[in-house]
TrEMBL record:
<dbReference type="GO" id="GO:0047304">
    <property type="term" value="F:2-aminoethylphosphonate-pyruvate transaminase activity"/>
</dbReference>
<feature type="binding site">
    <location>
        <position position="337"/>
    </location>
    <ligand>
        <name>substrate</name>
    </ligand>
</feature>
<dbReference type="InterPro" id="IPR015424">
    <property type="entry name" value="PyrdxlP-dep_Trfase"/>
</dbReference>
<dbReference type="Pfam" id="PF00266">
    <property type="entry name" value="Aminotran_5"/>
</dbReference>
<dbReference type="InterPro" id="IPR000192">
    <property type="entry name" value="Aminotrans_V_dom"/>
</dbReference>
<keyword id="KW-0670">Pyruvate</keyword>
<feature type="domain" description="Aminotransferase class V">
    <location>
        <begin position="22"/>
        <end position="317"/>
    </location>
</feature>
<keyword id="KW-0808">Transferase</keyword>
<dbReference type="InterPro" id="IPR015421">
    <property type="entry name" value="PyrdxlP-dep_Trfase_major"/>
</dbReference>
<dbReference type="InterPro" id="IPR015422">
    <property type="entry name" value="PyrdxlP-dep_Trfase_small"/>
</dbReference>
<feature type="modified residue" description="N6-(pyridoxal phosphate)lysine">
    <location>
        <position position="192"/>
    </location>
</feature>
<protein>
    <submittedName>
        <fullName>2-aminoethylphosphonate--pyruvate transaminase</fullName>
        <ecNumber>2.6.1.37</ecNumber>
    </submittedName>
</protein>
<keyword id="KW-0663">Pyridoxal phosphate</keyword>
<keyword id="KW-0032">Aminotransferase</keyword>
<dbReference type="InterPro" id="IPR024169">
    <property type="entry name" value="SP_NH2Trfase/AEP_transaminase"/>
</dbReference>
Length: 365
């Protein structure tokens, strides 16, 4: 077991059977055994998103960003554009990808930590003639905010747009229903709420979108959505050699969710742990960044006045607890992020808060 408790939003603490899956005996990725595991993992990814048979899931070797780049480098033909809704660092990551591939862009930017205005979004969609795809982040991890995915999904249905949602920090931690929320295509990775390791990303997409892809419209060689889909449906394979070692832990982590804890049970555990953490931090005179639209797994909090967040993080790590510093200007304002993804349970949260209080007292004395 790790000597450090990772209260950080990825990498996360994993179950022993997930870790042991790294030691699976060597196999060839062109073997029947791999293909059977690949298909089983695809089915479980679909279950994670409450997808029906009209969706297909694909597995990408890389971080969550690799799955996002796979989608955003593959969906567009000449002249087709994207409307991006962003209100934080990971929305800006999508912006960076879109800009790099020179895709026509309608950029709907809100301040970090501001809840997107659906009326503003609808007006932009209605007035944009070349928009094929509307893109946004489900859980903006830099603040811990859950964005209005359901409302935007309704707009995409109304205006007949493809709806792409970055679910990297949401899948397995939030209730995501791609059918109910009109999500056309979404992404995530094993090393977040699912409780596997970084490097095993995936895409869940409407099959009709995948079927309409051509090789030429995909602008990345390794991250070609067309190639990944064709390899999956024709051979239950990936187009290039995948990180086979990480496929096994992803499969085991997903199996743990559906055959042990249940998805609803995992989400409920995350909700309870977040509640314990937030109540405890407020009792210690810390100020939460958000008071609504909060994720089940990330709490952004400002330390009491006079407590240096960098020094505080170092002291907590010495005692076996790892957090993140706040992103961007939030770090300068004394913010840290406390996550409860992966193998974090109620007792862990109470124990962490006890140490948190001790360190605060020490640094305030």
């Amino acid at each position: 077991m790790s000597m450090t408790k990772l209260f950080s939003p990825g990498p996360v603490l994993v179950k022993d059977n997930v870790r042991h899956a790294l030691l699976h005996y060597d196999i060839c990725h062109r073997s029947v055994e791999f293909e059977e595991m690949f298909v089983d993992t695809q089915k479980k990814i679909n279950m994670l998103f409450n997808a029906d048979d009209s969706y297909e899931s694909l597995i990408i070797s890389g971080s969550g960003t690799s799955s996002n780049e796979t989608v955003l480098s593959s969906l567009f033909t000449e002249g087709e554009g994207v409307l991006l809704i962003r209100n934080g660092m990971f929305g800006e990551r999508l912006l960076e990808i879109i800009t790099k591939y020179k895709t026509p862009l309608t950029d709907i930017a809100f301040p970090w930590g501001a809840y997107p205005d659906v009326a503003v979004i609808e007006n932009a969609i209605a007035q944009s003639s070349n928009v094929k795809v509307v893109a946004m982040v489900f859980h903006e991890t830099c603040t811990g905010m859950i964005n209005p995915v359901k409302a935007v999904g309704e707009l995409c249905k109304k205006y007949n747009k493809i709806f792409f949602v970055d679910c990297v920090s949401a899948a397995g931690g939030e209730n995501i229903d791609v059918v109910e929320n009109n999500i056309s295509i979404c992404t995530s990775v094993g090393g977040k709420c699912v409780g596997a390791f970084p490097g095993s990303a995936y895409v869940c997409a409407k099959r009709e979108i995948l079927e309409a892809l051509t090789a030429d419209q995909c602008k990345n060689v390794y991250l070609s959505l067309f190639k990944h889909y064709q390899s999956a449906v024709t051979a239950h394979q990936t187009p290039n050699t995948p990180n086979v070692t990480l496929f096994w832990p992803l499969n085991v982590a997903l199996t743990n969710i559906f055959e042990d804890e249940t998805l609803a049970g995992r989400i409920a555990r995350y909700q309870k742990c977040a509640e314990i953490i937030r109540e405890g931090l407020v009792a210690l005179d810390c100020r939460l960044l958000l008071d609504e639209h909060m994720a089940n797994t990330v709490t952004s909090v400002f330390l009491p006045a006079g407590v240096d967040n960098t020094a505080f993080l170092i002291e907590m790590e010495k005692r076996g607890y790892t957090f993140y510093a706040g992103k961007g200007d939030y770090a300068k304002q004394g913010m840290i992020q406390v996550a409860n993804m992966g193998e974090i349970y109620e007792e862990d949260c109470y124990n962490m808060l006890e140490v948190f209080a001790v360190v605060l007292i020490k640094m305030q004395s």
